[in-house]
Amino acid sequence: MPKALREYNWRQWLRLQPLTHAVKTARYRKIDRRFLSLPAKAGDIQGTRDAARSREVLLTIAFGDAQCLDLQVRLIRGLVRHDLHIVADNSISEAAAGENRQVCAAYGTTYVRLPA
C-alpha cells in the first residue's frame, strides 16, 4: 500500500517520489492481477476449497526441496493440531515439483502446484 500523498515531505515531492511510487504500485498490481488469474498447474482447487471449509487448515509453501518438505510434514503431523494440511508448491523446476508431489502423496497431504 503506497503512502498517502500528505505523508510525503517536500524533499520527496521535489524528487517526484509520489509519482514514482504510484507508477510502481500500478505495475505491481497489474502483475498481481495477471498472476492471480492463472490456473493452478496441478491439484484440485475446488475440492481443496470445499475440504477446507469450516476446518483448521495448515498451509505450507514448498519450494524445490523435497527433503525439507518431508521433514516438515513428518514433524507437523506429530506436533501441530490441524484438520487439513495443504502444500502449495512454488518450485521452479518440474523435477523438484514432482518430488514434492511424491512426498505429499506418501503422507496423504493435499498438494497444489502454483503457477509460475
Structure characterization notes:
This protein is of the alpha/beta class. It folds into two domains: 5-37; 45-113. It has five helices and three strands. The chain has helices at 10-14, 17-37, 45-52, 66-79, 94-107, and strands at 57-62, 84-89, 110-113. The chain has a three-stranded parallel beta sheet, sandwiched between helices. Helix 4 runs parallel beside helix 5 (94-107). It is elongated. The two termini are 24 Å apart. The mean pLDDT is 89.
User: How many domain modules?
Assistant: 2
Oligomer type: single chain
Tally of separate helices: 5
Residue ranges: pLDDT <50 for 5 or more in a row? none
Throw out a few tags for this protein.
116 residues; alpha/beta; 2 domains; 3-stranded parallel beta sheet; 5 helices; 53% helix
